[in-house]
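Example record used in the benchmark description.
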Amino acid sequence: MVVRGARGYGPATMRKPAEMTAPFGARDVPAAEKAGLVRGVFGSVARRYDLMNDLMSGGVHRLWKAALIDRLRPHAGTHVLDVAGGTGDVAFRVADAAPGARVTVVDLSREMVGVGRDRAIDRGLGDGGIDVDWLVGDAEALPLKDRTVDAYTIAFGLRNVTHIERALGEARRVLRPGGHFLCLEFSHVAVPMLGALYDRYSDAILPRLGQIVARDRDAYVYLVESIRRFPPQETLRAMVADAGLARADVQNLSGGIAAIHSAWRL
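Model output (structure tokens):
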């Protein structure tokens, strides 16, 4: 296993000028500051992040991630890039599904990467298991060369990037032709009655859980607010297609509380 810092290979000179502001929860912040704020959120909750996922979703996030792996269908020799995957939850599922696969995990938070690396050591990965690289890096400037991975996954991370379109462009850049893009993300509830109940739960319970368990209420207020400002399913599907990824489709999970977006680099 390898842990390295960020080192971008993307052609910075080809990028558009940054927008002046970016959404951070319910407020707009200078775009140049968002990545640092996101690092602060996840650095604060890293050690309790996986426990909070279980408590917040009643364990349902495990079913959503199982559905992601079912769509991925990894096998021995597959090289999967898992972005925003610091604690290793998706990487370990790839290991279970496909011994002999390789996973590169990239996360903006050094603390999250540290948790994932420690969990991998505890599981014995890298010693007869899958080959795992742990990188600290930005989804908008991935530390990988062009056309080097067979699949790109990002679970509950796309809404935290500063510029979604740049992250999608980077996904296309690093995928080999025929490579699979998969994004699992909180989305917009498609069932009205469920939506009302979900909003009440999000407002009343999630910040309280964050305060008690993760000792950071503000991080989970941000979570709720960032979900509400994230593009709805059809808007994000169009953005995926605009990034040059083909056959973009979306699968709602739990009535649209979460969704899997799938596309291909052709």
